Amino acid sequence: MNYPKLKRFSHHLQVSFSRLNIICRTWYKLYASDEIKHRRNIAQCKVSDSSILAMLIWQASLGIESQRRFCEHLVNLSHSRFNRRTRMLLPLIYRIRHVLNEEVDLSGDILIIDSFPVPVCRPVRNCQAKIFSDYANIGYKATKKTFYYGFKVHAIVSDDGYLLDYAITKASVNDARETIELLVNAQPKNRYLLGDEGYVGKDLHHQLKKMGYILWTPYRKNMKNAKKHNNHYLMALRRTIESDFSLLTYYNAENNRARSLTGFQERLEVAILAYNMAYCLERFN
């Protein structure tokens, strides 16, 4: 059987820093709040907020995990000052991501839902780790068959690779449990969803049907009529989200070294912004 071939985008940020700086300067003028633009002593800053934003995206595009090392070699600011400046820009980064969501037309596309792990320590320290003790816990990473301590990021991605929205939970939270809240927050126009075996369940399918969504998941091998139900094209299409997650890992979405909740979300937002920015630059030139 011949299936249509979908256009996929590479998501590698192929842009010079000077052009990236111009884009960030435009975003800053359009979307930065007056609270950020006119805050105290901003006129005395040697490096502009738009340049800080460009540096953050540049760091993600280079795959540099350590912000301290990035500051030492490429930024004319101390690590602590750079950190404070970046956290101030979190509302702006959040705003830009949502503006891109409104600009990108995903109508008619199939959406794929899945999750990826974000460990905050090495597996050997799972039981001793105290960081984020009120928010993180131990979960299982099925792809590597290991347990990890940290968070889980649940995401909705279009079939050509645009990341529409995400939610962060404890590592042990089941994928299906977060699906409803994720769709309520994202409110996608698309009605067709693909998920893996973790989303199998009549209750979830009925809830989504009431909301107007149709969820397709492959059956497990030991389930009745599995061979008849499992469409190889849909299964291959669903697996494309794993390639998207591997690119997000390159942008440091999974290797998050932040030690505060604000810093954790800021780095995740920057990784997703850089990823979606690469998509938009390639798709819309």
UniProtKB/TrEMBL annotation:
Bilayer-crossing regions: none
Transposase IS4-like domain: residues covered: 108-277
GO biological process entries: DNA transposition
Molecular function GO labels: DNA binding; transposase activity
Top-rank taxon: Bacteria
A Pfam family recorded for this sequence: DDE_Tnp_1
The name this protein goes by in its record: IS982 family transposase
Organism: Lactobacillus gallinarum
Record lineage: Bacteria, Bacillati, Bacillota, Bacilli, Lactobacillales
